[in-house]
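Preliminary data (for renewal application), coenzyme A complex.
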Amino acid sequence: MTDRHFPAPPAVVRLAEYTRADQIEILGDSPDPFGVADAGLTWLPKEDHFGIRRNGRLVAHAGLLTLPLSIDGVDTRVVGLGGVAVAPDLRGHGLARAVVSAAVDHARTLGPRHGLLFCRPPLVPLYERLGWRALDRDVRVEQPGGAVVMPLRTMWIPLRDGVTWPPGEVRLLSLPM
Ligand SMILES: CC(C)(COP(=O)(O)OP(=O)(O)OC[C@H]1O[C@@H](n2cnc3c(N)ncnc32)[C@H](O)[C@@H]1OP(=O)(O)O)[C@@H](O)C(=O)NCCC(=O)NCCS
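Predicted structure:
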């Protein structure tokens, strides 16, 4: 722990639900808090939610959703991470590290061998710092009008020791998370 972190590691709790009001509590009510509106994508809500509360206020969130994926034509499942958010006034103190770590720890119990996320290019170094790796190939994802190439960066994390990312075409067989 460095000085920039809170005196004690922030306690991450499992949230029973994560509503639009919860997201507004963290990020405010701006029209595009994730900066991805330009991509024009339709996203899935997450299923498992992890959060940090401070003085009763929700200040950080990360969500998980297990999804079908094919790699080189072989069907598998991945645990998608999404909705990572920290209150603007509390950024830079390790809260994203805490919620993402808790979410990944839980993802390791779900079965799939890989975690997956999509992010804006400027966030790649941050996620690399948290153990994620850039997947330098196109990933096709479903959208209401049919499959498209994901315009954001794709990153993955091994959920078990020794897991690598296999070569071959990658298709998310659902809307992205
Ligand atoms: C992205 C976001 C979640 C980061 O939250 P945060 O609490 O400031 O992040 P943290 O302080 O936990 O930083 C995580 C790690 O990344 C590192 N980091 C931060 N910015 C970095 C950068 N530009 N390059 C490399 N590492 C970086 C931090 O040093 C930290 O590593 P450390 O714990 O080893 O020091 C926050 O800015 C946010 O909510 N943004 C708006 C919503 C959004 O875009 N979410 C992402 C959706 S994919």
